[in-house]
Design a protein that fits this description.
The protein has helices at 12-50, 52-77, 82-111, 115-132, 134-146, 162-189, 191-200, 205-247, 252-262, 268-284, 288-314, 322-336, 338-358, 363-367, 376-380. By secondary structure, it is an all-alpha fold. It starts with 11 loop residues before the first helix and ends in a 9-residue tail after the last helix.
Length: 389
């Protein structure tokens, strides 16, 4: 009887060719995914902007659901029915929002009558500065004469007044607010069913665990960030209101409320608050130096708060790249305006928490030949250092 030789596995050369082919195939798929993601990123603003009546309330409702779900869970844990707990959580947020708007809008309406006098005072201050720096205007005129430039008339087209713009915008705003609160209520009420669907309707136990971790991380990170920042901004508003009262600034509660609300806008909000305090101070103070005191005091407070207090409270868990914050701020402001700017940081937090579990794409490394995702080699069963299975 002749014994047959044992069958051997694939040779190292065949195995190496198979791995090289798998790498090329994976890189091609990754390139297609990257191109599709880039196309979606470029097309998404136009879709979201055109459908803002639908997508803006939906996005706002999702974020409000994430924020208010812990409160609804706490109320349900005390024995309240789920519908009643969801309604109380939403009404609590609505009451806080109305209180904040009342504290800001009522003094603002009272100050509206004094705006023309403040504008005249600001004009006088700038006229004084222009007289002091008149030599700059003379140099500019001489340079314009040397370059052959002459003054040209400007045609200014009449635009709708503020009252007309508000009249046209009010029905749309009311409809979006109503849709937002209705969707928020139904999302909060359906949170338990949604959790069960995400956890128990998965094909494997591993995907259920991953879905549970992603859902918990997104909710914890966004809710904790917004609630913590809300407490910090509330304290900033109290300090600003007390400082305005001590400096004799009119309507200190309004300035405190404005400081608290604008502080939710990274970078842009504090700059806008500083500009408002500067114009108001110059328009009401006797001298230019005294008019700059409120803005300088707020700027010092914001410097301490943003560089010392907020980082020490939030910690490394909520640390985000300032460049990414500015990109998200400009991106969503372009799409939805002021509301997009307010939602930009929560949306960025949701995406960051999601990609922390799914995996962040290695965009720069992909250009130089690295895999798009760090776990691509593991998915193929390849050791990234040796290239062997």
């Amino acid at each position: 009887m002749s014994s047959q030789p044992p069958q051997s596995g694939p040779t190292p050369q065949k195995r190496s060719r198979r791995m090289a082919f798998a790498q090329q195939e994976l890189r091609l798929i990754s390139a297609l995914v990257l191109l599709l993601g880039l196309g979606l990123f470029l097309a998404l603003p136009f879709v979201l902007s055109i459908g803002a009546v639908v997508f803006l309330p939906l996005t706002t409702a999702i974020i409000l659901t994430i924020i208010l779900s812990p409160l609804a869970d706490r109320l349900a844990g005390w024995g309240l029915p789920n519908v009643l707990a969801s309604l109380i959580a939403l009404l609590t947020f609505f009451a806080i929002l109305l209180l904040a708007l009342a504290l800001i809008l009522q003094p603002a309406v009272d100050l509206f009558d004094s705006v023309p006098a403040m504008a005249d005072r600001v004009g006088d201050r700038f006229a004084e500065l222009r007289d002091e720096f008149e030599w700059i205007a003379l140099v500019n005129e001489q340079l314009s004469a040397l370059m052959g430039q002459s003054g040209a008339r400007e045609v200014v087209l009449a635009s709708p007044s503020v009252i007309e713009q508000l009249a046209f915008a009010t029905p749309s705003v009311l409809l979006e607010v109503l849709l937002t609160f209705l969707m928020t209520f139904f999302m909060i009420e359906a949170r338990v069913r949604l959790r069960r669907h995400l956890l128990f309707d998965r094909a494997t136990y591993g995907t259920s665990i991953k879905a549970a971790r992603v859902m918990r991380e997104v909710q914890d990170r966004v809710a904790a960030y917004i609630l913590t920042v809300a407490w910090i901004n509330g304290c900033v508003g109290i300090v600003v209101a007390m400082g305005a009262w001590m400096l004799g600034v009119e309507a200190p509660v309004m300035w405190g409320g404005l400081a608290a609300l604008l502080n939710f806008l990274p970078y842009i909000g504090p700059l806008l608050m500083t500009a408002l305090l500067t114009l108001f101070g110059i328009g009401t103070a006797e001298t230019l130096i005294l008019g700059l005191v409120p803005a300088a005091a707020y700027l010092g407070l914001h410097t301490v708060e943003s560089n010392v207090i907020t980082p020490s409270i939030l910690g490394a868990r909520f640390t985000m790249n300032p460049v990414m914050i500015l990109i998200a701020l400009s991106y969503f402001s372009w799409i939805w305006g002021v509301f997009g700017a307010l939602l930009s940081v929560p949306i960025l937090l949701m995406l960051t928490a999601f990609f922390d579990h799914v995996g962040k794409p290695n965009l720069i490394g992909f250009i130089f030949g690295e895999p798009l995702f760090a776990n691509n080699w593991l998915a193929l069963g390849i050791a990234p250092d040796s290239g062997q299975p």
